[in-house]
């Protein structure tokens, strides 16, 4: 390989110009579609990135696996890595395409979010201790 591959392997580091923190949420998190509970956990992580809204990352093990269907979609973030997506396949026949994302091999600066997923607030209801997050 020619050139510097460190960014390709490790991405950009969060810093003063683009801060990112990952901390335990410290409260129960529930994700719902209508009345259906999609995920419930007491071990969520809150990722705060630059000027974006905080994002709840829920352990994949705490998401109802029956509702997840792997999507072929991917996106790339220079700070977190390549995101893979899931559709929520609800028994009522509703399909929420690419409503869930995960960084399966996140860059070192956000390594804590491995084995966690996040949800688009416009497609689900995210509650932290009963307080709607989106």
Give the key terms.
mainly beta; 4% helix; 134 residues; four-stranded antiparallel beta sheet; Metal Binding Protein, Guanine Nucleotide Exchange Factor, Chain A
Inertia-based shape: globular
Rg (CA only) = 15 Å
Proportion of residues in β-strands: over 45%
The name of the CATH architecture is Beta Complex
Structure in words:
By secondary structure, this protein is mainly beta. It has a single domain, classed as Metal Binding Protein, Guanine Nucleotide Exchange Factor, Chain A. It has one helix at 6-10, and strands at residues 20-24, 29-33, 36-41, 45-49, 55-59, 68-77, 81-89, 95-102, 116-119, 125-128, 131-132. Helices cover 4% and strands 47% of the residues. Residues 1-7 have low confidence and may be disordered. The relative contact order is 0.22. Strands 1-4-5-9-8-7-6 form a 7-stranded antiparallel sheet, with no helix packed on it. A 4-stranded antiparallel sheet has the order 3-2-10-11, with no helix packed on it. The longest helix is centred in the N-terminal third of the chain and has 5 residues, at 6-10. Strand 10 (125-128) and strand 11 (131-132) form a beta hairpin. It contains 1 helix and 11 strands, in the order αβββββββββββ.
Give the structure's gist in a few sentences.
The protein is mainly beta and 134 residues long.
């Amino acid at each position: 390989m020619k050139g510097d591959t460190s960014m390709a392997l490790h991405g950009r580091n969060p810093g003063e110009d683009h801060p990112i923190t990952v901390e335990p949420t410290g409260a129960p998190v529930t994700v719902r579609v209508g009345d259906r509970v999609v995920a419930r956990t007491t071990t969520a992580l809150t990722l705060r990135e630059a000027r974006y809204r905080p994002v709840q990352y829920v352990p994949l093990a705490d998401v109802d696996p029956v509702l997840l269907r792997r999507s072929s979609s991917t996106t790339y973030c220079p700070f977190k890595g390549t995101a893979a997506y899931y559709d929520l396949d609800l028994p009522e026949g509703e399909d929420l395409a690419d409503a869930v994302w995960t960084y399966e091999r996140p860059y070192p600066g956000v390594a804590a979010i491995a084995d966690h997923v996040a949800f688009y607030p416009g497609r689900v209801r995210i509650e932290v201790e009963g307080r709607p997050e989106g």
